[in-house]
Each structure stands twice: as C-alpha cells, then as structure tokens.
Amino acid sequence: MTPRSQRRILWVLNVVLGLALAAAAALALWPVRVDEAAVSAETPAPDVGAPVQRASEPLSAFAVIYRRDMRQPLYDPKPVVVAPAPPPPKPKPEVDLIGTAVEPGYTYAFLQTKAGKVKMIGIGEELDGLRVTAIADGSATVQFHGQTYTLEVKKKETNR
Questions:
Q1: Contact 96, 128 (CB under 8 A)
Q2: Strand partners for 66
Q3: Which domain holds residue 115?
Q4: What confidence tens digit (pLDDT) does each residue in 61-70 have?
Q5: Domain total for the chain?
Q6: DSSP code, position 110
C-alpha cells in the first residue's frame, strides 16, 4: 500500500467520524416536544434542585430488623397439629346363622359363610376368626375381633 492511498483512507475516516460527531451533537441539542394533553394541570412541577423527600417510616420503625439475630430462622416453626385419624370401622362377622341344634351333649350352630358354605360349629370352636361362645335355641353368641355379637336365625317369610 502506498503512502498516498494510506492518506486517502485516513481522510475518508476523518470525514465519516466528523459527520457522526455532528449528527450526535444535533440530536443532543434537538428540542423535545411535550404532549401538553398528557400532562395534567393538577400535577405540580417538581422543584429543580430541591432535595428528594422519601415517603417512608422513621428509622425507629426498622429497629426490629436491626435487633434480629440473622442466624436464626426468619419464622418461628410451629409443629403442625394433625387431628388423629378416626379408628377404622370394626369388622362385623360375615356369616349368617341358619340354624342351631341344642341338646345335652350335642349343641351346634350352623353358620353359612359369604361363599355359601354351611359349617357346623360347636362352643369354643372358630371359623374365619369367629369364635362361638354360647349357643341357644335360635341364636348364637360369638366373638369377632374383640367384639361380642349375637347372631339370630333369620325367619323365612312364607307367602300365603
């Protein structure tokens, strides 16, 4: 590259930079137009050079924050009190008493399970967690999961 071409490049760069500087100065001095309809007459103009007043509380209102130990949690954790769950419903025996046989030395209850099977049970015997404690004519007393129940023979209705 010759010295003459270098001078031409520098001259062109100076002209471009000068035009950019002139455009920036013109924009900085350009007057700003204010939309007078947007500015209401009720809004007072701020005083130029007046100190800025903050609408805040006095510093004494923040004393609680200054005194707080920042190593502690920001809130007081309280234990969550959960109501105890209601006890599950007690299971009821799922058998039906269909008959009894009450004779000296021969006392049995005839129990029908949900599956439809009929079992003959004596006093003190168990069937599916159900323990027979007493048998009377037409009824049987049983214990099931710690509860005492009295089962009675269901009478069949006859249509006449």
A1: no
A2: none
A3: 95-152
A4: 878 877 878 7
A5: 1
A6: E
